[in-house]
Amino acid sequence: MDTPKHQNQMMFVGTWFGSALSTLALSFVLIIYLSQVKIVSPANGNFKLYAAVPTSGITESENIDYSDARAKIIEGFFKGHNSPLADLSEKFVEVADRNQLDYRVLPAIAMQESNGGKRMIKDSYNPFGYGIYGDLVVRFSSFEEAIERVGKALREDYLNKGLQTPNQIMAKYTPPSLEKGGSWAIGVSSFMEDLR
Fold first, then answer.
1. Which long-range contacts (CB under 8 A, 24 or more apart) does 114-119 make?
2. Is 101:95 a contact under the CB 8 Å cutoff?
3. What is the mean pLDDT of the chain?
4. What is the pLDDT of residues 4-34, one digit of tens each?
5. Is the pLDDT of residue 82 over 50?
6. Angle at 75 (CA atoms; ends 70, 79), nearest 5 degrees
7. Partner of 110 for a Cys bridge, out of 32, 127, 137, 155, CB 3.0 to 4.6 A?
8. What interhelical angle do 89-98 and 67-80 show, nearest 10?
9. For the residues of 145-171, what is the DSSP string, one character each?
10. Number of H helices, E strands in the chain
11. What are the residue boundaries of the structural domains of the chain, listed by start?
């Protein structure tokens, strides 16, 4: 014969089991209801279900414009060195592209030669140390002109003549560095690596 205590325990287990099954069944019903697609009819003509839909057709292109990324890399590099050349990052990329140069070479030379334009001959606008031999100083009217002329000279007087790497360029650009163990090429290569 069942005791009242035993009957209460059985009733508790039955109630708990019934509640658990009811909760489980209700959960399944809600999952099914919430996972169904619902079509919303607008109340008036001004309703837009998706406000961010483009107004014109989308076109796909295989050409990826990465000049912005390169300019941002140069800008960040120069800003990290507190260089006055940071605002000219687009110019560096433009000149590199026009002269088919590695976009990193001109900024790297500027860092090696003048700490990014911070240490150069007064009013020379020559952060590249280009054409400076003792008292002979090549001067430019602006940093933009310097970037243009040195970029063109690198293409015509160095790369087109087979001088491709910083070590090869160094032999003509700054021959005294050869006697110092190639410190110029090491510095330029290091700055180019920082610009990756």
1. 115/81, 115/83, 116/78, 116/81, 116/82, 116/83, 116/84, 116/85, 117/83, 117/84, 117/85, 117/143, 118/81, 118/82, 118/83, 118/84
2. yes
3. 83
4. 777 778 888 888 888 888 888 888 888 887 7
5. yes
6. 150
7. 127
8. 130
9. HHHHHHHHHIIIIIGGGT--SHHHHHH
10. 8, 0
11. 1-39, 67-194
Residue type for position 162? G
pLDDT tens figures, 28-49: 888 887 777 766 565 555 555 5
Q: What Cα–Cα distance (Å) separates residue 100 from each residue in 5, 46, 131?
A: 92, 53, 22
DSSP conformation class of 86: G
Dihedral sign for Cα atoms in the order 7, 8, 9, 12: positive
Tokens 């069942």 found at: 2
Tokens (6 digits) for 190? 């290091």
Q: Which residues pair with 133 in a beta bridge?
A: 136
* Residue 171 near residue 112, CB atoms below 8 Å: no
Q: Which residue has the tokens 């050349």?
A: 85
CA distances from 151 to 77, 93, 97, 192 (A): 19, 10, 10, 15
The CATH T-level fold of domain 67-194 is Lysozyme (1.10.530)
